[in-house]
Design a protein that fits this description.
The protein is of the alpha+beta class. It has 5 domains: 43 residues, no CATH class; 103 residues, conserved putative lor/sdh protein from methanococcus maripaludis s2 fold; 99 residues, Elongation Factor Tu (Ef-tu), domain 3 (Beta Barrel), CATH 2.40.30.170; 47 residues, RNA polymerase II/Efflux pump adaptor protein, barrel-sandwich hybrid domain (OB fold (Dihydrolipoamide Acetyltransferase, E2P), Beta Barrel); 60 residues, Orthogonal Bundle (Helix Hairpins), CATH 1.10.287. 22% of the residues lie in helices and 38% in strands. The strands form 4 sheets. A 6-stranded antiparallel barrel has the order 2-9-12-11-10-13. A 4-stranded antiparallel beta sheet has the order 6-5-3-8, with no helix packed on it. Helix 4 runs antiparallel to helix 5. It is rod-shaped and about 145 Å long.
């Protein structure tokens, strides 16, 4: 077959396909008109459907030139999209202390073991105190002697000079101070717990020589656990002390824990653009330990957006849009999809609660065209109150990877 014959056959086949498409595809006429074809050619390729005896379109929708287009609408609702922050934080006891001696010497007694519960001020270990005991006894003897001398001078004041009595009283005061210093040195030989809590592993043994910097044991009060985590700076003005948080120990999944914000740092970390936050979680049943990692969740009130039925959202080369019915005419309204849910789509658009948007009969609509709504608008009488979550993830495993609320 020659080339010109092939071209003719191809044109005929393409033309037949276009005509078949125009006769069978709904809305083909609108597409052809949008392409700029004359109305005469459009009428040949995609003629309007035949009408019955009563002059109604057999397709169920009223056609252009034959009356308003029949559509089904649903009212616009509204929904609050909430911000939710997820972060990984590290836990520590609400009070934790490393016990060290107040003096140097050899350990003679260790009165507790790992896991014991101690009270504040309880003696947990002792240093050798023979020298201090002797010094305290000597000071007590000197005090008794000075007190007896003062009493003797006072009973026989006429037999002694006034200066002698004053010197005796001064000696008595010095003896009292010397005894106090000796008793304080003796008391410091006892190593006491500065706070109540649970004793950790004892790191020393009886007979060890310890100094004021030698750690004896760690004591944790874990009746409450503090969890430090980091949030992005956009949440800095939203986080408040006392705000509720939900946490879950990574080692104990499926067990939600309730807590509150305990403290907030006073500055943003410039390297990661995050803010340090500390939450407090009750640990009355003693299931949690210092050093555990926790997944922390916080919810924040977000913005309210219009919601439309998913069937109402249409697409074109300019983006997404919906058809709104106003004064019995169709109006094309551009929308930006914020979040898509199974029953509602949150959009950013100039739509008000209760505005009717078209969900059926969309193929024949044009901007400013006359429409007729089928019966009553479908949908609930009240504005739907739907909540959606937008999650801001954060991971606090390392300080260098906390750009989104992590540390």
């Amino acid at each position: 077959m020659r080339l010109w014959q092939q071209v003719v056959v191809s044109v005929v086949v393409i033309g037949a396909g276009v005509v078949a498409w125009g006769r069978m595809a709904p809305g083909a006429g609108d597409v052809l008109r949008g392409a700029g074809l004359p109305e005469g050619i459009v009428a040949v390729i995609a003629p309007a459907p035949a009408t019955g005896p009563e002059g109604q379109a057999q397709s169920g929708n009223r056609q252009r030139g034959g009356g308003p287009t029949l559509v089904v609408t649903r009212p616009v609702g509204s929904a609050v999209i909430n911000d939710r922050l997820n972060a990984i934080g590290n836990g520590e006891a609400i009070r934790s202390v490393t016990v060290t001696p107040s003096a140097t010497g050899n350990l003679t007694d260790i009165l507790v073991k790992s896991g014991d519960v101690v009270e504040a001020g309880q003696v947990i270990a002792k240093l050798d105190s023979a020298d201090q005991t002797i010094a305290a006894r000597q000071a007590r003897v000197a005090l008794d002697s000075a007190r007896e001398k003062v009493e003797r001078f006072r009973r026989n004041a006429s037999a002694f000079a006034v200066q002698d009595l004053r010197d005796a009283e001064t000696t008595l005061q010095g003896a009292e101070l010397t005894l106090q210093a000796a008793e304080l040195d003796l008391k410091r030989r006892d190593i006491t717990a500065p706070t109540g809590g649970i004793v950790g592993i004892i790191t020393v043994n009886v007979g060890d020589y310890v100094t004021t910097s030698s750690p004896i044991a760690n004591i944790d009060d874990r009746s409450e656990i503090l969890v430090d985590y980091w949030v992005p700076e956009r949440f800095a003005t939203k986080v408040k002390v006392g705000q509720p948080v939900t946490a879950e120990a990574v080692a104990q999944p499926g067990t939600p824990l309730k807590g509150v914000v305990h403290a907030i740092d006073n500055r943003i970390d410039q390297a990661s653009r995050t803010l340090r936050v500390r939450a407090r979680i009750d640990n009355a049943d003693d299931r949690l330990r210092a050093g555990m990692s926790f997944a922390v969740t916080m919810a924040f009130d977000g913005d309210r957006y219009p919601t439309v039925d998913p069937l109402a959202v249409q697409w074109s080369g300019d983006g997404s849009f919906v058809w709104r019915v106003a004064a019995e005419k169709s109006e094309r309204v551009p929308v930006k999809i914020v979040q898509r849910n199974p029953d509602k789509v949150l959009v950013d658009a100039t739509l008000a609660d209760g505005d009717p948007v078209v969900t059926e009969g969309l193929q024949r609509l044009r901007d400013g065209g006359a429409v007729s709504m089928a019966g009553q608008q479908r949908g609930d009488a009240e504005t739907p109150k739907v909540s959606a979550d937008r999650t801001s993830e954060s991971d606090a495993t390392t300080r260098t990877a906390k750009a989104e609320g992590t540390r």
